[in-house]
Amino acid sequence: MEVDKGKGEAEETRKVAEADRDTVTLKSSDGKLFEVSKEAAARLSTVLAGMIAGGSIDDNGTDLKQIGSEALENVVDYCNKHANSIPSAALISSSISFNTAPFKEPEEWERKFVDRLSHDALFDLVEAANFLGMERLLDVTCHKISEMMKGKSPDQIREVFNIKNDYTKEELEEIRQELAWAFYDD
Amino acid sequence: MATAATSPQRQSRRRLSPPRLLHDDELVVDEILTRLPVAAAVRFRLVCRAWNEALTSDHLLKAHHARLAAARQPELLFLLPPAAANGTAAASLYACSLRDGEPPSAAREVLTIGNLSSGEHVLILSSPRPCHGLTLILDARHCSYYICNVSTGQHAALPPCEPAMCSRAGPSRIGMGFHLRPPPWTPFEISTAGLGFNHATGQHKVVRLFKTRIGETICAICALGRPAGGPTDTGWRPCAGRVPPHAASFIAGLPPVFIDGSLYWLLDNQLDTTGGQPPAIMSLSVDDEQFGFVRTPPLLSRRICHLTDLDGSLCATVDLRHVAERYAIFAWSGGGSTSWSVRCSINLQRLPRPIADEFVEEQDVVPLCTAAGGNKKILLATGRHKVFAYDPERDSMERLVNMQEFVDIPHRHREAPLLLNISLHEERIACVHDPTPPDCSSSSSSKRRLHFRPGNKTLGKRQVPSNDYHDDRFRHLRDLFKEMAGLPLPHMNI
Question: pTM here?
């Protein structure tokens, strides 16, 4: 009982201390530390918002073991850039598997932000955005990936996604026949 | 700053297998495949078995459609008839997007329909929008039907259908609108066809109502694809339900509207000789193929000019622009109800003169949908290939699109001769199943077939001299009625 109470008090103090700061520190899987605006983090990420509200933010760096430093750097960069751009309406939504809210076209800075990323960095960022519950970032990154995919051949897609062609020659021919009309560039 | 203790295992795994998104990853399916344009989503079935499975799954088709439907601003689809050239010609379908209800700045060609002779007519029967991703197209000269996914170009020809009785050369009520018009081509079959979708079996059905050469009204159905668990049906077969006597007064050349499992035909009351108060709207449930009627108040039933699907509900238009300067849209509450309410009523006298004059020049007006954005503007497409947006809150109207700003419309098509050339474009992953029985394919292949090709052009907007599309007839007609105000209104069927 005593121990529990003490822990609760400690948490209280820490929460107060946290509340005074306007940034939070995040730690990547490889141990690098990043500072991000608390307001932007809470607004853009449902997971970080939950952590901030629940007081599970660590002053010495909140561990995000699932996210590598490169992806976390991009996440933080995105949050900070977003904090500087005009804040849009609430972008936080529930954890449904696909978002059916109207998709808003990426803004100019968002487009530039994803355009400079390599495929790998983009894929990492998708995973990070998904993990952190960042609906808008997920929207923007996945939109970019689908844009990048649409002019490609199945061969090129296999290469980008590192997928093995597991069809037999006959199966491939059968689907190709079925889709004969779909072989044009869009 | 860095502490080496954190998850070195994950780090090394990640370095070893560069592109990290696995094909069975939920994220790829839900977040990336659902965002692909329809044509790419279909093509990527070739990537691997898992993607093929994902891209044909019900879950993905629904999610893909939901995402497109949510993101999509209304897009117009415009059919440009073939130019009067020698040899074979092509009709083209153009799409233009109305972002935030703004006039479009470009039109992109989505499909060309080739192997037509000049002067031939191609009609889009699925109006105002495709039926569950597919569009029914009629090659009028050969009375042959095609089913097509406009966004992918996949298509199939329907088996040849029984010839119907042909109409006489004189003007009669055919196609859209109240007025009488001469058949745009001859022989002109007394028939109507529409496309429906059965949610329970996932089948599309083409329903054709026609008069036989001895004057009998027949309903024939051609189902596409295999119903779940059942045998594939092929070819045309008689409708399961009994065709009611009132069906005889269907309007030739006017396709039924498909909404929520049923097709709705507008009937021409004046043709009905059964006595009493003839029904104005006949329905057919696509699932059990039983006919029914939609009750309308007597005053409305005599005046319905057109039926349409406005944002998912059955709407009837009453066009009194020439006689009373009004255009009204009534919405049906659905089910077995007899209740109709005014969805929107446009009083031309309250509109600024130039736009009212331009709007009254149009012989045919059909509501398409409500535009995206807060002010609930109603988009009205017209026979002269324009789209007007009416704002019921501000009681204002503007012309959003004049298709002549993008394409040269052949002179004889300045006015749509039977049905509008404008409908709505909706992309959807939907496969076209060839309904031709294998033994028939050889005999039908000898017949001339249309060629469908995905389009590739994008057209910018250009200036059109305003006097290019003026027609004073209707303004004069309206002014004549204005002068006669005070006298009893003449009969509607002008």
Answer: 0.81
